[in-house]
Amino acid sequence: MIGGIEGFFIALYIFMLAAFTGYEIIAKVPVILHTPLMSGSNFVHGIVLVGCMVALGKADSTLGQVIGFIGVVLGAGNAVGGYVVTERMLEMFKSSGERK
Amino acid sequence: MDFATFMIKVSYFVAAVLFIIGLKRMSSPKTARGGILWAGWGMVLATVVTFFWPGLSFGNIVLIIIGIALGGGIAWWTGKKVAMTDMPQMIALYNGMGGGAAGAIAAVTLYKGSPESLTVGFLAVLGGLIGSVSFSGSMIAFAKLQGWMNKPIRFKTINQVNAALLLSAFIIGMFLLGNYSAHGTLVTVFFLLALVAGIMLTSPIGGADMPVVISLYNALTGLAVAFKGFVLDNEAMIIAGTVVGAAGTLLTQLMAKAMNRSLASVLFSAFGDESVDSGEVEGTMKPIESSDAGIMMAFADRVIIIPGYGLAVAQAQHKVWELTQMLREKGVKVSFAIHPVAGRMPGHMNVLLAEAGVPYDLIFDLDEINSDFEKTDVVLVIGANDVVNPVARTDPSSPIYGMPILNADKARNVIVIKRGKGKGFSGIENRLFYLDNTRMLYGDGQAAVAELIQAVKAS
Q: Which chain B residues have a beta carbon less than 8 Å from that of A35?
């Protein structure tokens, strides 16, 4: 995608806009949600798993397979672990109304 | 573009949208629970369609499935089992895994072939560097918070050494740009330098500052994932990684601000767990019996409870909620005041209270509640110390001067539940304990609150 000069600029715009999106999304987050949100964003970068899957899937040497496999294990750990702890924390956030 | 690729691209787009909506919903208490589900479905979608990526060999697909089962299984099991008090180090651990995964992608790219273009090569190298630092750094953060590593590595020139490590890794990385696979040994040296830099950067940082560092590594991992996304032409990784990189950076700043620390001082001055000497305080601490304290609270109009991490250590959250319910039945207005650094990281105390069943609308943060203390009859401080120390407002020579505190001293009465007469985390004497309107209720947090419950019941 970022091969040619045109692609480079498209990539730069995507990067810029996504960065502003990330900034805006949490600009007004209350302190009470800092920990779950950090955990939730930690989960989201677990998407690295799909990159590792492609890297391992296309590996044609033993070294490539070994590194790719480690990557998939780590990436899956990031995604699954991040999801489980975030879900556990957020599950507990209830207001007075919901308790009754 | 064949059909499979087209469907993958469409799915990645949907996943990216789901991630953004999910994160947005996670930033408000009302919608937070649904937010993680949205993001979760995005992840499932992206993972499933990736199996149809053109050109994956069957043998490698089997390896992928084994890898996901292994990594995911271990993470599922540890994530379900971990106690809420240990949450900070688990986040560090999972984050480190993400950084390691980004590093692994970089390694696969760098050990094989040459870059398509200078930009791709540059991002591959930079992503590998950041991912590796985030990986080893997060692992050290995990080990330190877990109590596996109590001796920090500290020496005078550590900042210079770290700068040299990072710089040499970067220079080697730039050298690799020409044709990386031609220099297999150099690639290895590059990764080793980056890993050592992560260890050395994190090791001197004290436990109190660690949450800020974990948050920073979280942002860095996001950035590394985004760079890898550009290298692999993977839009889902680009968007998710960049969004997390930016959100994580802002979150790091918010946390550092809440702790009254600058990011630079966290990273380069290694304060965190050093003790400071401070002057003697005039006056005495005045004890109170739990029966008297209970009556005082039962007949108050308004009570504010200030919990600190000591509360979680004593496992007293459930008892405190029981006490709160009892007081509310008697018509007392009870609120919780949470200092940003009350738990082990900002927001951690809210999680611990939520676990005990305290609804979030009774919980207020510093800015919301600080003006209410003057109108409050009784403030109950449990396991908190530095965050209610009025010297932060009054004494410019104090190391915590300038830190925002909860103005407990302005309330009509203050009851402090405390195990003994020790000092707080910073090692500073707490003037609040010596004030005329303060009474000390000595004892273990859980036992003391249980006694209070009895006293309120009897009154």
A: 87-88, 91, 343, 345-348, 350-351
If you measure CA to CA, which chain B residue comes closest to A15?
Answer: B242
- Cα A7 from Cα B79, distance rounded (Å): 40
Of B404, B428, B413, B347, the residue nearest B381 (C-alpha): B413
Residues 250-269 of B with CB under 8 A from A: 250-251, 254-255, 258
Tell me the pLDDT tens digit for each residue of B60-97.
999 999 999 999 999 999 999 998 888 889 999 999 99
Which residues of B are part of the catalytic machinery?
A: 386
**Strand B378-382 versus strand B413-418 pairing type:** parallel
Nearest CA in chain A to B184: A63
Q: How far is A10 from chain B (nearest CA, A)?
A: 11
Q: Is B150 on the interface with A (CB under 8 A)?
A: no
pLDDT of B9-56, one tens digit each?
999 999 999 999 999 999 888 888 899 999 999 999 999 999 999 989
Indicate the burial class of B204 (C-beta count within 10 angstroms; 0-12, 13-18, 19 or more): buried
Asked if B138 and B124 count as a contact pair (C-beta separation under 8 A), the reply is no
Per-residue model confidence as pLDDT tens digits over B373-407? 999 999 999 988 888 888 888 887 777 777 788 99
